[in-house]
Design a protein that fits this description.
mainly alpha
Length: 88
């Protein structure tokens, strides 16, 4: 069984179609999160960078990087609960 947290953005918790850091949790894809715009392997490579990027995203209003991908029934609190515990 796959670890669900492997599929979540470390910054905003959006579930990704593929693990942003690979199945080993160590190999970044360098894809962009459709919600917060973080580049996996760049803005989320260090704990301090994750926290800083998340706070900036929140401060700016938690806008979607790709508005066309935003679900109509988006629940930011539920999404944030997906953030892997080690990045809270």
């Amino acid at each position: 069984m796959l670890n669900k947290s492997l599929f979540a953005c470390r910054v905003c918790g959006l579930e990704q179609p593929e693990p942003p850091w690979g199945l080993d949790g160590k190999t970044a894809t360098f894809d962009i999160c459709a919600c917060c715009g973080a580049e996996f392997g760049y803005e989320d490579s260090l704990y301090s960078a994750v926290v800083s990027y998340r706070e900036e995203w929140k401060r700016k209003g938690m806008n979607w990087w790709s508005e066309k991908d935003k679900p109509e029934d988006w629940d930011v609190k539920a999404q944030l609960s997906n953030i892997p515990a080690e990045y809270l």
